[in-house]
Inverse folding.
DNA sequence: TGGCTAGGTTTTGTTTTGCAACGGACCTAT
DNA sequence: ATAGGTCCGTTGCAAAACAAAACCTAGCCA
């Protein structure tokens, strides 16, 4: 059979997200979209991705509601790809990944780019907090629970019992 | 050439991160690792991933310093896979993705699981803030700048230093 | 007429994946 | 002791996704 993992059976929000953006190129396409890329040729130049693959990814992203198309020229018909609200909400995912890459792949010196947080003027460093209490994340401070009846015993639960 | 995107030319922290965890299965393997999975058969049962692929991914994750192995049985030699510090730091990435999946794939009702933030007792909702000023992210509040003058260290170089 | 651009699609191979079978090395129950 | 079971992979094969480059449509330019 094919390559793609059948994330859909996983019944998990992470798997659901990966089903949309889990492709090797998709997140890079979106990274460029956040930096203003909107046209086929721009992505092709920047990423060097095969044209057929790029066409397939853009089509899938539109189908999934992450991007929309808009004609910027009637004759000849030319369309550009814009982030939807759903797509813009992926920015935290990319920033979190960028933060990890800066710290753990590039190390001390930091990555090749700096992101400046305009409101405060300092380098932006991503920090994840609990929206409810505003506290930062600490190891092991989360407990998983099934929301729906149809119970799926997780490993976490199984280990908690042991 | 083969299938795999050559992220290494991208010279970008996102691409660097994807080089480590951008594989279709890798993030699901790590998701389970955060829920306590440590052994080959556990992953195989839960994910249904092909055994050769799982073996390859685990090997790559160890090579990349995201997981370590530890013998839990001398005879027969059996090893388990544990998250390193570097690996544990990927938790924000997974939580951010989970938050997006909950909101945009599952929608109103929320995803199949709830994550409880033990310190405050409420459902954990991920929020990304600027570590410097503590303010939440708003659209277009980041500016990108190149850090280095002439030279952009490639991922390959960065890894060679490590 | 010929050349150029933008945005793809088609064609032709190469890589990777999924699957199932096999392997070794050790336990345990009969 | 021998048969079965567990755990952790490795090997071989067909199918799917991929990469590269040629090709196509549709207009525009001169």
């Amino acid at each position: 059979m094919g390559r793609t993992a059948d994330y859909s059976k996983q019944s998990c929000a992470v798997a659901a997200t990966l089903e949309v953006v889990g492709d090797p190129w998709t997140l890079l396409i979106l990274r460029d979209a956040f930096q203003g890329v909107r046209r086929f040729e721009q992505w092709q130049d920047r990423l060097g991705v095969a044209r057929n693959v790029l066409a397939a990814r853009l089509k899938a992203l539109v189908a999934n509601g992450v991007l929309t198309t808009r004609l910027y020229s009637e004759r000849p018909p030319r369309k550009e790809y814009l982030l939807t609200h759903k797509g813009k909400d992926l920015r935290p995912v990319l920033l979190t990944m960028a933060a990890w890459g800066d710290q753990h792949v590039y190390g001390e010196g930091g990555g090749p780019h700096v992101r400046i947080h305009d409101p405060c003027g300092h380098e932006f460093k991503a920090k994840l907090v609990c929206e409810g209490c505003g506290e930062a994340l600490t190891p092991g401070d989360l407990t998983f629970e099934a929301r729906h009846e149809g119970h799926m015993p997780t490993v976490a639960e199984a280990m908690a019992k042991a």
